[in-house]
Write a structure and sequence with these properties.
This protein is an alpha/beta fold and 771 residues long. Among the domains are: 86 residues; 238 residues, no CATH class; 212 residues, Spore Coat Polysaccharide Biosynthesis Protein SpsA, Chain A (Alpha-Beta Complex). It is 30% helix and 13% strand. The chain is built from 20 helices and 21 strands. The strands form four sheets. Strands 1, 2, 3, 4, 5, 6, 7, 8, 9, 10 and 11 form an eleven-stranded mixed sheet that branches. Helix 9 packs parallel to helix 10, helix 11 runs antiparallel to helix 12 and helix 17 crosses helix 19. The radius of gyration is 31 Å and the shape is elongated.
Amino acid sequence: MLVQERSSAQKPSNQNPNPKPKIYLRDTHLPTNRIVETNNLDFSVWVSDNLYKIVSVSLLVVTVAALFFLRNVGDTAALLCFENKARDLEKIEYPRVDWNKITPIADKTSRYASFRSEKWIVVSVSGYPSDSLKKLVKVKGWQVVAIGDSRTPSDWNLKGAIFLSLEEQANLGFRVVDYLPYDSYVRKNVGYLFAIQHGAKKIFDADDRGEVIDGDLGKHFDVELVGESARQEVLLQYSHDNPNRSVVNPYVHFGQRSVWPRGLPLENVGEIGHEEFYTQVFGGKQFIQQGISNGLPDVDSVFYFTRKSGLEPFDIRFDEHAPKVALPQGVMMPVNSFNTMYHSPAFWALMLPASVSRMSSDVLRGYWGQRLLWEVGGYVVVYPPTVHRYDRVEAYPFSEEKDLHVNVGRLIKYLVLWRSNKHRLFEKILDLSYAMAEEGFWTDKDVKLTAAWLQDLLAVGYQQPRLMSLELGRPRANIGHGDQREFIPQKLPSVHLGVEETGTVNYEIGNLIRWRKTFGNIVLIMHCSGPVERTALEWRLLYGRIFRTVVILSEKKDVDLVVQETHLDQAYKYMPKIFDQFSSAEGFLFLQDNTILNYWNILQADKTKLWITNKVPESWSSVLTGDNADWLSQQANMVQKVVSMMPAHFQVNYKETSNNDKNLLLCSSEIFYVPQRFVSDFVELVNLVDNLEIHQKVAIPMFFVSMDSPQNFDPILDTTIYKKKPPTTNSSTLYSAKVPAVHPWSVSTEQEFIKLIRVMAEGDPLLMELV
């Protein structure tokens, strides 16, 4: 997991290039003058004064010596006991909070101590006031509080806004200040507490580049949920009919099915069909209200980089007439921090975590908050366009959201299954934060931040909501025909994505569904020789639409991108682990990143048979080796050793294809398929190889002809375009959309990936929506 990256503000060249950050402490009452006496240098007095230090150092030396001794004398039991105790110290400590002894915190330092307002807008500011922010302070009936960080100019000022500098934030006395980085928008946590302390009942979480459409929040959101001015209405709600669906893309509902929000798992990007039907829910408990943004909506870096055409800014429009839609318990969506309305019963859900990367903080907060919102009977509602955000045409930081793509799918599944036996909401909140730290979604820093946040909420007078009965896990009533509501979203033009929506789209979507149905239980194992930090997510985006999952292997491990380390020449030895991990899969397709798979041309393949390029001469060959010590002869000797240990059925099959001990089968093995019925055979052969250094190009053909006769192989890969070297001029001339696979093709950058997508779109036109 990435930790918050900090970028320093630019400084004049005559200043220290590495200045120490200012550290603001709460006010302390220390004497201003101290008289320092000179210490007596007498040795006995020195020993007396420093006795505790001497004892501490001595104990440390004895401990280290004991540990060294235990290691060398082989007292394993004692050593393990010592190490286990050390590991116990590393465990995350569960915060102890006495909820009945929280001291109130009153604003006694700021000039706004007596100010009160029920409606607040909270923004984070790093530069001088933007034009959008200048308009935001003019929204009638709402008070803006701007939260500064270490990059904010010291002379920041905007009429109509309350500005809190780092120093002013520190003097407010909130516990959370101790856990917040100096240069991050997560300092908005202080702004939320300040607003609640000063009478907030509604908080609009915003940024300084969004303009409220028509300058009226009440026109778009349900600002009032109770009382005479509240809209008493029944809301459209996503159906809970599919128990396996836990996340939705709300942009489809509002007419942009080719766009997805930041925080949507990439494996769900291809789910672009509209709802078969909706249900309904009574309004009044939409405590979190997510607005849609026109212009530059909340999208991730994969979308931003792969669909950006030159320097032209995005100006994406959503259907302003589509009805708002609620999410039932068990279904989630990404929630951001720049266009979201929070009502008082959900103020606890405003906490932005501090230990995760910047572009992940509000998304993780949103999923964490949605799960806990179900505990108080609340729900999230998505609204038609509420703000217009301007695309500043600047680099979008992929590195700051890398851990988001890796963890978010697993997080959603975890949250839906999570349960707590605590009896009060704040105890459940702390329980979940602790559990998420144990699971690695964030660190113990955010467990401590949660404890501080909850105590600060109580200290400023917030009353925690009562728990409601949870619907999850209980049998749900069947949705009758009379309970179903239909809404067919518009399909707004997507010319900004290089795609003209036409009548052929339904045909193309039908193809996608057919491919997914065919390969939806096939695991793609992909070995990347190129830089995975630039291409891993792109490969998952491309092939993840089709296959059950995409497992990435590489020469170098990358924990953040879930890339496993294995050398290509021995990759087959890692495959049994993947077989075991996906034991219910229908089959496993291995693919190197220098070979392109045209999945639309392998639909006719028999998924119960072996596939390999044994009829492609440039890929498969038979070599007669000699008695010398060259590499081929060494490989042949090891093959014969394995063959001699094979059970009879393997040996018979092998010798029917290769009956000469000096004959060595070679296959480049860039692409091959192992069906589930041959998995146990493959694993048995891997075990026979054991520690022998048999190369993948030798091991795979040996395995295949041992498992089955080549005449039984499916011929689907026979027409593969295979060249030893790529064309020297234009690599596009090598590609054909009419064959099952093409080799070689190099993809090591995002630009090369975009080029690949454009040529593959001949066979899958929907791919053009990825570039």
